[in-house]
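Memo to structure team: turn this sequence into structure tokens by end of day. - J.P.
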Amino acid sequence: MAHYGAILDGAGGEVDVFEAITENFLAGGGRPRAVLDALAPRRPIVFHGVGLGIASSAPPEPAYLEAARRLFDRYDPPWVSDHLCFHRSGRHYTHDLLPIPTTHAVLDRVCERVRWVSKVFGRPFCLENISRYVAYRRTDMDEATFFAELVRRTGCGMLLDVNNLLVCAKNLGEDPHAFLERIPPGSVYQYHLANHTDRGTCAIDDHRGPVPPAVLELYRYAVRRLGPATTIVEWDEDVPPYEVLVAQAARVKAVERTARPSRAMHP
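Reply from structure team:
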């Protein structure tokens, strides 16, 4: 909200696309909707949700899906996204993005819900890999294999958060390059880039500060391996002046240009 004025004044001419958090715009009217109405004719807007909880024990609430569908129909995003996670059990909400057990049973549940949600939204639907701080004792596959099978069975796209791969590498000893090797080329619709804080014993995905070199280098590898796609820079804590964010976007564009494979593999 701090940068609404700068964006509407045209200060972000170098920015190609904006991402909006779905839940911030579900209510009709108000300044947030007015800003989207003014911005939509100038730049594409993609919506990214935090409230779906697609792997929760209870299915997504129909009222939520209907409100989101109306929002998407108004602004016609080329795709929409949320997170591969759960955040509720029955009537109990955690208000967090919690990791799922990557079992065959959970995969079946998520595939069924992806088909349902995609039909309700009437447009391509993507899921994001989350930052994780704990691991389950029993799983049937790693997270990348889970994503690859989800893509194969449903046509779901992936929102690949490169920063989250490095957070999981620090916290759980996972190999981010091995993760990328298992993802089908062409399945990534969008990338997220951000910073994290290394606390010594763990990394915290706090989106504080500019995108660090390690994230940019892994992003370069991802683009070479999986193909270019729309890329969003996330900076949610200690938010800087708008021109700093625009400069971050330009830096990412430069990295992508040097990383592009010989042919584009985007869907």
